Amino acid sequence: MNANPMPRIMKQQKKSFSTRNETRRVKIRGVPIGGGTRVTVQSMLSVPTSDIERALGQIRELASAGCDIIRLAIRDRDAVEAFREIRSCVDLPLVADIHFDHRLAILAAEAGADKLRINPGNIGSDAKVREVASAALEYGIPIRIGVNAGSLPEKLARNEPTAEKMVEAARMEIEPLLESGFQDIVVSLKSHDPAMTIAANVLFAENFDLPLHIGVTEAGLPDVGAVRSAVGIGSLLISGIGDTIRVSLTGDPVEEVVVGKRILRACGLLKRGVELVSCPTCGRCRVDLIGVANEISRRLPQIEKYIQVAIMGCEVNGPGEAKMADVGIAGGNGYFLLFKKGKVIEKVPQEAVVERLLVEIEELAAVSDD
Ligand code: SF4
To answer: What's the rounded Cα separation, in Å, for the pair 152 and 158?
Structure first.
């Protein structure tokens, strides 16, 4: 008999999945970013800021989708004036996004921006960045230093971008600001490549305690972009890195918020509303599970309370998952067993199961957690 102890087959995990990286906290119109507070979801208007009616319409859509912070492009002085008017009509935090002309950032701060976003690669000299910081200090608003792999500062732009160069670009802007006493800084390091985005943010988090806005930039059309974003943003969040997120999709910004909230939910960082767990089905399934799951999903009530619902095809994994959920169903031959809080409460024919499950979800939603 081998007297040797069993070899270690699992490396010790350095950090719990649930541990968030410690960062400073900044506030954007009262909404905190960093310092262990909840991870917020951001998006950016796709219409010109100077088209006030359309901008307000898109802001309303984003707000009802659950967007926490909204960014607007400031191209010129007309956009600054439009921003001022939009600001007066909206409660959500609004971020002014400025490239090239630092004077627009100063004007946007005066026009009521709740945060400024500038890119060190194209805003120009340290002196200009310091002028922007001085305006931000005067109006009590944070600045996001947004580094993009595709627009690194000139001295770093030779050859291919790397995670190290991205962090260096951020450091070049951050250190003078910190030295001048400006503290309210959020940083983003984005690439279209999820792996480079992850590497840059991990490296940054190892060296700085500033809050991180994370996202995979230019992620693509919604189907592919959602996957690329889930890989990049999700990996970082799971390892505790990231204080606010933006999914960048070639499409409707509302879709960015929907995908962002799905990523947060998958990472266990959004415990609100109904979360569905459903099996992929296989040759053992003797109910129309896909039809039932789709109909339930379509008819789910919009609620604040967090409720887990399991929709399972058979007796293999069905009872286990259904027991773990708040309410669940496990398929048999043309019927489902209905589980609630770990116990079977009823046998329901397939034709009635959607209505029956929805009643249980509504009832759970109506019960107070106190
Ligand atoms: S729960 Fe049953 S039907 Fe669903 S995938 Fe597993 S074995 Fe197949």
So the answer is: 9
Per-residue DSSP letter, 8: P
3 state DSSP class of 237? helix
Render pLDDT for 11-64 as a digit per residue (tens, 0 to 9).
Answer: 555 444 558 899 999 999 999 999 999 999 999 999 999 999 999 999 999 999
Centre of ligand 1 to C-alpha 364, Å, is 26
Residue closest via CA to ligand 1's atom 2 equals 314
DSSP, collapsed to helix, strand or coil, labels residue 121 as helix
The response to whether residue 196 sits with its C-beta less than 6 Å from ligand 1 reads no
Number of alpha carbons in the 13 Å side-chain half-sphere of residue 303:
19
The CB density around residue 64, as the number of other CB atoms within 10 Å, is: 11
Distance of CA 324 to the CA centre of its chain: 26
Which residues, other chains included, contact 192 with Cβ-Cβ below 8 Å and sequence gap of 6+? 149, 150, 216, 217, 218, 219, 228
- The CB-side HSE value for 264 (13 A sphere, CA atoms) comes to 25
> Which residue is listed with tokens 């990049």?
232
**Could you tell me if 268 and 301 are in contact, meaning their C-beta atoms sit under 8 angstroms apart?**
no
State the Cα–Cα distance between residues 69 and 79, nearest whole angstrom: 18
The whole-model pTM stands at 0.89
The CB of 314 under 6 Å from ligand 1? The reply is: yes
pLDDT in tens, 247-278: 999 999 999 999 999 999 999 999 989 999 99
Q: Could you tell me if 99 and 53 are in contact, meaning their C-beta atoms sit under 8 angstroms apart?
A: no
Q: Which domains, from first to last, does the chain contain?
A: 26-266 (3.20.20.20), 274-366 (3.30.413.10)
Residue in the block written with tokens 């649930």: 18
